[in-house]
Each structure stands twice: as structure tokens, then as C-alpha cells.
Fold:
Amino acid sequence: MNRNIVISFGLHTLLVIITAMSLPFLAKEPIDLPPIVSVELIQISDKTNIPFAPKAKKIIEKIKEKEKEKKIVSEQAPPKMAKKEKQDAIPLPEEKIEEIKEIKEKKQNPEKIETEVKQVSEFEKKDLFNPDSIAALIDKSKVETAETSKKTEKITQDQDKSIDFGGLSLSEEDALKAQIFGCWSIPLGLPYNENLLVRIKLQLKPDGSIMRSEILDHARMNKPGQGFYKVLAESALRAIKLCQPLRVPSTGYERWKELQLNFDAREMLEG
Amino acid sequence: MLFRYLLILLILLPLKVFALIEVDITRGNLSPLPVAVSPLSIDEKSKSNFKKILKKEDLGSEISAVVENNLRQSGLFNPLSKNAFLQKPDIANLKPRFEDWNLIKAQALITGKVTFVDEKLRVEFRLWDVLAGKEMMALAFTTVPSNWRRVGHIITDKVYERLTGESGYFDTRIIYVSEEGPKTNRIKKLAVMDQDGFNNKYLTLGNELVLTPRFSPTNQMVTYLSYFRNLPRVYLLDIETGMQEVVGDFPGMTFAPRFSPDGKKIIMSFAKDGNSDIYTMDLENRIVERITNHPSIDTSPSYSPNGKYITFNSDRSGYQQIYVMDSSGNNVKRISFGNGLYGTPVWSPRGDLIAFTKLHKGKFYIGVMRTDGTGERLLTENFYQEAPSWSPNGRVLIFYRETKTDSKGEGFSAKLWSIDLTGYNEKMVATETDASDPSWSSLLTN
Amino acid sequence: MNLSKILKNGFLVLVASLVLTACATQKKSGQTQGDVYTGTDSVEYLASGVKDRVFFATNETVLTTASRETLRKQAAWLRKNSKITIILEGHADERGTREYNLALGERRANSAKDYLMTYGISSDRISVLSYGKERPVDSGSSPLAWSKNRRSVSVKAN
Structure:
């Protein structure tokens, strides 16, 4: 017992001596301050349908494309695009978007980063866009933000369409979406790893009420093993009915009298 | 030739046609769906007959109350207040005035009729889509009057399935261990109740310690651990008859029993000389098969719904972890790799997930992971909770929680809790006494 | 480095280590060593000086030196009283899943049984019974209470 005490004491003293010799005493050194980051306060305007909008879209798309390394379709002169325009060929709009993006990209190269920040904040105020969408541009590793960036991308594609094909403006589309978001009660029991897309074509009256609605994948409703599709489609129909009259623009009936709503529950359920 | 060119030009000429505008709707709300559950209409004669037999004033309202409560408890539906209902039950059942129901913001409506026919209870119900203004479903049931609560549960299952796309879990029972007394000398009894807490029945008297009861997936048999005569062994109990019998003739403690998905085998642990391994016994021919053979503790086995795999708890890596193997015992693979101890693995009836208990840094968690161990998600955290059991549709987990005792060693309690797979709707399941070790039956209507 | 600095450092380190060792000694001189209960609260006696139980660390089933000493005394007493048979009851604390704790209790009791057998006690005089976490001796929810519950108790069977 005694021997142990002596050994312990000896070792402890040794330890004290060692640390005393080598312990760096806190010297009065100056603290390194990180450089001050200047933040520019940006004015957010009310309207979203502004000439700036296309540029901002470009920026978001550009960053998305960098992420995804999409193949760029060869440039074509604008007039050609208009000719290709067909009402029922759904894949076509996508092609066109790529072309437009490509052209815009070339134009936007000399733009400064500051402008990016400005434009991005225009979108910040929208309910559709999560505050996270900004983070998405910065921190691409977050899964959450990846989803919102997907959203943003989808929406920007629409905007592209709208600007160039005389459809709904950004604010008009936002308004309609926000309205339907509030009406759609998504059934929670759906299998999240299946195709949860319901496309409904609507014929509208000038006041936004529905004349006719048609589910494009109607046959799927009664397919065996796709029972959930029926439930999903019904929920989409309920949403539309609940939201009548739809928030349609006050002018230009001819351009939006036929509308297709693509309900996709996947994001909500997967997340 | 020229004509051809002209034709092409005409076709390609940019017409003043507008593209079909497509709007993507990728978000909605996940708030509970507002539904109106109208009291079921009942004629005066039937009403008085049922009052005599069941001592219930208005069976139509009683049955609709069962449905309403079930829907509310699921967290997916919001049954609207009856005070706002404008239409009377009997008229609503024949032809609802949808504008009335629309006014109170109901999106779905349940109506029905109850009649006393040939000494039996007959219930018809209809589910209406208020916004579309049409009937979605209409069914009728006939049964003995005492089964009236089950009719309410079956109606809920049908409505739930129709509106969510998932099969329901309302016509089910939960078996659990009822606990009373001080922690150092708890009196434990087997008890069974409807999933909504009604019709509670005790199955044992509390004279011997009973633990971990599990339902057979196919009939009204239960397997559990009993310390009858101070010999801890796995037993079978028939809920209808109350008959108990010991499973097999093992020379040592058997515990952690479960049924195979076809209900024909019992899988359990057998402890001998400090080592616990997994064994099965066929209930018909009584053949015993050894599944694991390892000096570590192997316990808490659970079959996959197709019977091909078994997930279990083993400390062969040094600490409690979750493993998966073939039902023959081959190809043992560890699937839990997070920080902490893992236990009580239980395979979802949907086959896609395994629920478990996790202990890490002094806290207990109930979580789920995919059957290959990826996608670990912790649903809830507590001082002490364990032993999740799945609802038959693989959507809800029931488990139990114990509270800390205070400095005097008092204040201990154990209660059943349930939580949705998404992590929402965490709530206590009310029981008469303290409770632990819950196990969910499959749908009684099979 | 000048002398004053060395002295300053030395003083700091000394104070720090004293504080540390103070904590350490508290663990040792209290009721648990490491994680294993070393007190006599809840301990009963089979005979004078023969404790009826041994304790274990969390998740462990190995016998400590103190446990072995207790079991040696038990073995001696059993040799003297050759007609007595015992039941070894194995227990676990509440901080674990129920089924695993049943297995753990069984293993602990078997640890004790194996040791008794190496001292000549025949295995048909010893039976093993695990209670998992079902029969705690201390209903508290503290590390000390839990340490008292992690035990293997020798109970006279006849």
C-alpha cells in the first residue's frame, strides 16, 4: 500500500514538472479578426413580372445546369423555335427551353456576381420559394435544398415558357399555384416510390370556373395495382373543385382558357 | 411540286395559337381531411330493440361515434362538429344536399342506417364525395348486436382505404401486459383490448410473471413468456377458450417468442449455460429446429412477412446490434451501424422496414430502417421507451414508455404510446392500469 | 522560460490535477468501483460472512475480484452443507431492452455457476433462473440504484 503511494506521488510530481516546462503560458497576443463582410440591402419590389426576371431565371438555371452538367442543345435562331411550336407535343417545350437557356447563358457570362445576389432576392419573397432556395445555390450538399432547387428549376422552366409563349406571367402563375396549394389535401397513404403524377386538362370560363375537366391518364384509374392512383386523382379533382373559381388573370382569356394542371405528390411525400 | 411547298408552308406558318399552359402543382397541404360523420339514422322500433339488448340509447349515434373517434385518432382526418350539421341523418342517407355539407367545408361525408332485423344488427353506410357531389362507396353489414363496435371499426377501415389508398387498421386488437404495484414487486397480467381502448379483458390472474405477448397473425392465439412455477417458458394461449399450454419441452428458459407469418411456427430464444440461441418449433408436428448457433446472445427474432428472412438482436459484435438472416439461419448480416445499442427489431407487415429500439448516451429512441440497414430514421426520443409493434398496415407503431422514479423511488409508471411512421401524431394509448409490451393483431376481418 | 513562468505553470497544473484526483477518489471510496456495486446495502448473508450476491458492470457478465471472493466463500459453505441446493437468480438493470436483459441475467447467473463449479460444486446442486429487469432490488432511477440491480443472487432452494 505504501509503495503504491510513493510510486503515485513520484509519477504525479514527474507529470507536474513535465507540464510546467512545456505549458505555453497564455501570452498577451493580439486576436485575429476576420475581415468584415459587407452586405448590401436590397429593395424588394411588389411585382414579379419585371424585365429583370428572365435574367434571374438564367442565373438560377445556370447554377442548376452547372450542378447537373446537362447537355446543351445546339443553338438555333429564335424564329425556328416559334415554328416548331405545336399544341399537343408536350416534349417540345423542353427542347425549346434548353435552347433559350443556351442563348441566355452566352449573354450572361460577363455579368457580375453582385447581380446574382440581387436577382435571387427578388424571388426570396415568394411563398413558393423556400428561404432555403438561396442556401441551395450556396450549399448544394443539403438534400432539402436540392429538392427546393428542383422546385425552383421546374418553376423557372414554366416561367421560360410563359415569357416566350405568351402564357401566364410569373405573378399570375404564382397566384394560381398558391391558390391550389391551399386546396389540395394530399392523401398521406400513397406509396412514395411510385409515379404520383396526375395531369388534368381544364376548360375554363372567363370567371375562372370550370367548364370541363379531364384526367389525362384516365385509364390508369382502374388498373389493378394502381388503386392509389384513383385516390390521388380524386384528391386532385377535389382540390380543383374546392378552389373554384380559379385565380385566373383578368385579361387574355384566349391564352388561358385551356389549362393543364400537373399534380405531383412525390416531393411532398418523399420529403 | 409548288403545291407541296405551299402545303408545307401553310402547315409551318406560325399560327396565332397559344401553347397549352401547363402549371405544375407540387405542393399541397398535409392537414387532416375535413370529413363529416353523420349519426347513422335509426327507426324508432330498432332503436328501442337495441336499447333493450345493448343498453344504448341511440345505436346510430354510438356507431358513428366509433367511426368519428377512429378517424380523428388516425391524425389524417378532421371530423367536423356535429352541431354544424344541417341535414338530418335519415334524409342525408338517401340524398344528401351537398351544398349544405359544402357549407361547413366537409370534403367527404359518411351517412348510414341501422336496423334491427331477425334479431340481428344490420348497418348500411355510404361515403360521399361532397365536392364532386356523388357517392363513392356503399356497403351493408349484418352481425350480432354485440358486435356493434366492430361494425364501426370496419366502416372506418373501408372509408380510410377509400380516401387514403392504404388499408386500414381499425378492426384490430392490442394485447399487452397490464402492470400494477411497486417497481420491486410488479403484478403483471395479460390483457387484450380493441385498438381504441374499449372491451378490455384480462387473460391471466397475475399470480405469475408474464411478459412479451404476441398475437398470431392468423387466429386468436397468443404466445408469451410465463414464469409459471418459477420456470420461465414460452406458452400458447387461446383467447377464446383461455387454454394455455407450454411450447415444447426445453430444458431451460425459452423467451422472446413470435409467430411465423403463416401462424404455424413459434420462433423464440432458448438460453442454456449462459448462451441464448434462436429456435423454432412447428406447432403441428412439434419439430424443433435450431436457427442460430453462436456463443453470443441471440434474441428478439422477427420474421419478414413473406417468411423468408428473420431479423434478430445479437451481441456477437460485442454489443447489441440488429442482424438479418435467411429463415434457415444462413447468410447472417449485420444491418445496424449507427452509434449506440440496437434492440427489439420487428419487421413491418409491408416488408419494407424494420422498427427497433435504440439506446444512445442514456436516451432511448424508437426508429425504423430499411431492411438493408440504410435510411435509419429515429421517430421519438425518451428517458425510457422500447418494443415497437406495427399496425397491420405498416403505418403506425405502438410501444411503451416508462417514467423515472423520483429520489424516493416513487412515481414509476409505464404507458402505451403510438406514433405514425412519419413521426407525427405521437400520443398515449389509454389503458385502465399501467401497461407495457404491446402487440398489434392483424385485421380481424380476414 | 524564466523561473516565474515555470512556477506559474506548475501551480496551475497542480491545482488542476488536484481537482481531477479529488473527483477520482470520490468514485473509488463510494459505493461503486468502476461501474460495479461494492457496498453492502441490499446484500444478505447465506451464513456468517458469506454474502449471497455478486454484482456486475453495465452490459457485462464477467466476475470482478470481489465477486470471485464472495463466490469462493459460497463454495466453501456449500461444500460444508452438502445437502443444500441453490438457485442462482440473474438480474439486469432497467436501462436495456426487456428480452436482451433476460438473456443477460441468464448469462450472469451462469458466470457465477461456472465459477462455483470450478470449486467443486456439482451442477445438479445449482439451477439458474433469470429475471432480467423484472425484479429490481432498488426502484430508483440513478446509476447507484442500477448498479445494485445488476446482480446474481444465490438463493437456498431447500
About this structure: The mean pLDDT of chain B is 93.
